[in-house]
Amino acid sequence: MKNKFRDLEPMLKPKSVAIIGVSRDPNKVGNIIFQNYVNAGYSGKLYLVNKNAEEINGIKVYKSITEIKQSIDLVVIAIPAPFVPDVVEECGKAKAKSIVVVSGGFAEVGEVALQQKMVDIANKYNIPLLGPNCLGVMDPRSRIDTLFLPTYKISRSSIGGVSFVAQSGAVGSTILDLISGEGFGLSKFISYGNAAQVDEIDILNYLMHDDETKVVVMYLEGIKRGKEFIELAKTITKIKPVVVLKAGRTQAGASAAKSHTASLAGSYEAHEAVFRQFGFTIANDLSELLYYAKIFASEPMPKGPNISVITDGGGTGVLTADAIGSSQHMKLGTFSDEVAKKLRKLMPILVNIRNPLDLAGDADSKRYSDAILTLKDDKNIDMLVVIALFQTPGADSRLAAELIKIKQESEKPMIVISMGSQYTTMHKIMMESGGIPVYDSPSSAISSLSALYDYYEFKKGNNYI
Amino acid sequence: MKNKFRDLEPMLKPKSVAIIGVSRDPNKVGNIIFQNYVNAGYSGKLYLVNKNAEEINGIKVYKSITEIKQSIDLVVIAIPAPFVPDVVEECGKAKAKSIVVVSGGFAEVGEVALQQKMVDIANKYNIPLLGPNCLGVMDPRSRIDTLFLPTYKISRSSIGGVSFVAQSGAVGSTILDLISGEGFGLSKFISYGNAAQVDEIDILNYLMHDDETKVVVMYLEGIKRGKEFIELAKTITKIKPVVVLKAGRTQAGASAAKSHTASLAGSYEAHEAVFRQFGFTIANDLSELLYYAKIFASEPMPKGPNISVITDGGGTGVLTADAIGSSQHMKLGTFSDEVAKKLRKLMPILVNIRNPLDLAGDADSKRYSDAILTLKDDKNIDMLVVIALFQTPGADSRLAAELIKIKQESEKPMIVISMGSQYTTMHKIMMESGGIPVYDSPSSAISSLSALYDYYEFKKGNNYI
């Protein structure tokens, strides 16, 4: 495998980093990257390079990378495009182990020859080069962060199991911001822009072998090495789930993609067929990408398709039953006699013992807990959907805390649906941080459970995807 | 029309209100309703009724409504179900003009006879009765608020043009909370629960004639008077848009709806056919209900289906082009030669003059403003979609302020897509309050524009719905 794929370890776990193009101006890209290293608490060696400066923030600045005379795992390049090939040449001479080029101004604006010149030099020295026209990489474990976006604009995620791969910087940064806002954690973030050299194949191969990555989530505009992609696709989903959003599904989108990252989007139908055959989970929108990422990151394998819905709002229970009814494989389970009897004793007389179980608008954390702890042992129920509407009088922080406690003991997939503004958002973040995937509509919740189920059926040999 | 439909004016614009079942306990339903009247600043006459109290919060408490001896427009009843019929009888004797029964414990738990007894009494006195098992009504203009949900749990909306009708209290309160969180305003909120007497027909008829209502948004579990509904449906969409979410689409959902509000959901296909024939906008989920409500509340009629996309993130532009490409009637417009020339002069050389117009990751409010002000006069462009990713370096509060300014001068529909966490949310609320509908994904934005276009085409005689 080593020969076919470029080694991204020095890029994601660097012991030393050089930033080329650091400026004194705090609004310049190079300076923001430097500040983010400081903010992230990167503890490896950090070198700054700028032809026109001697010192920035009290740190020595080198004229050229060749002056450093130390081993450098990663070079981040943030200078105007025309100067990049010469600097890559210097990186080669300095025996740098990997390069991220964040600068734009290459193939995406027609400068194909300039881009090729840069790649040829990197290839000559056998250095993996990410970009150009990209945000680069982030890894909250190694505290590497090449993003040129200030932290007040885009929150950084906590440590977790989701690795996110995006060709587009904007899509990538949006997703990164959403992930951190939702409170679930990140393993790796890789934005690879024009994919001039390192491409989705190298990245997928790296993430497949990366134990810190539990689920791979990809935004793709095009695939360059189709044969290698299929070869990888055969293997990766046997090891971990891969969620993919492919842009350029339509003619309008494909044509826009060509202008954006100089990608040939290819036939969407052909891509989709490959994704389905090899058990990729297909997202149709950015929000679906996020929904699926978080369910794969936290939930165990469901034993079957039977869902129990527990709710403090009847109408939302009905809508969730509809979402289950419209899904291809999900089922509304029937409580076993034993469990139904137990629930009848525990619940107030106004509560009908049926699925969805409507605990009524005055339900408190005790009633939720009685219901869920009973249902989680029902052999007829494989997955739990808890609707917690914090608008009702009995739902408060005690309910959120109780659900987190139950979740930690649950061996079945268990997710929550909560919808609302401030008061609800506070509790959503609390529950997400406590390890519960929280959804903002019945349809997103059920389609996520369905994606989870379909993936594990695929692994068993039943391809439902 | 008067004879067929019950008059809801005294319920929504009451000059005097009596609350029956007010308690000293601040957590009891009757007390929360009373507190909400105080909070809302209701300025009409307010009477409290409780058999067992003489005074609450320094206000005189009557033993019975018959003791008040004043004209009462609205009676809110919040006492246990078995006592309700006798109190309705007293309301009749006191010549009350309308009743809202928030108490549960009627047909939804099998107490059909008790419910019928209550309705018979209301009918005898010809009093419109809303509920039981409902949240009741809210109108930020008349400051009426019968909801028994505390304001810290569920924010109250500002004054606006959206009237929201829900059979389910939980769905209603969730939507109300979401509406207020999004920052767009409400005309009326009506939660009618079991629909024992006043039903969707009465409510629709009232809202059709209500000038404060610009768009009607409904969550339905079942329709009881089919013939009258069809008669109304023929008329209402000629006057204003109606967005409908019908629960019980599937067998699972229909069966849950029956248990919830004792509704017979009927065949969804039959309902859908009626909705389509008469130009209702069909939502498939709670989130769609909200997306469509806000576009109808703020946007003018589009002259045609041609969209221009302006973005600071290429990838999000591609996904939006895909959403347009997959929609039935929306088109990605081609800039007129004149506009293209003007843009070429105004934009930096790295910006390709094509649709989607990718302003690049360093776009600031000036570049946005140059682009949008040029495009809004293009005869080839009917609608504007502005993607503002606040994660990029140049996008900040100046951009939000500039977009609000441009929006106020735009005669074409113009919406924004912004996705992200805290920093973005702040700007989303700012823009929503400034009159711009903001969407959190390309697909929700485009499907909303499509709903807007289809409705106005329906009004012109082209039924695309």
Short note summarizing the structure:
The structure is a homodimer of 465-residue chains. Chain A has 465 residues and is of the alpha/beta class.
Instruction: Kindly report how far apart the N and C termini of chain A lie.
Output: 28 Å
Largest interface: A-B, 87 and 87 residues
Write down the Rg of chain A.
Answer: 25 Å
Poorly predicted runs of chain A are none
Beta fraction of the residues of chain A?
A: 15-25%
What attributes does this structure have?
465 residues; 2 domains; Rossmann fold; alpha/beta; seven-stranded mixed beta sheet; homodimer; elongated; 16 helices
Describe the structure.
2 copies of one chain form a homodimer. Chain A is of the alpha/beta class and 465 residues long. Helix content of chain A is 41%, strand content 17%. Chain A contains 16 helices and 20 strands. Chain A has a 7-stranded mixed sheet, with helices on both faces. A 7-stranded mixed sheet of chain A has the order 9-8-11-10-12-13-14, sandwiched between helices. In chain A, strand 5, helix 3 and strand 6 (99-101) form a beta-alpha-beta unit. In chain A, helix 10 crosses helix 16 and helix 14 runs parallel beside helix 15 (422-433). The longest helix of chain A has 19 residues, at 442-460. Chain A starts with 8 loop residues before the first helix and ends in a 5-residue tail after the last helix. Chains A and B meet through helix 5, helix 8, helix 11 and helix 15 of A and helix 5, helix 8, helix 11 and helix 15 of B.
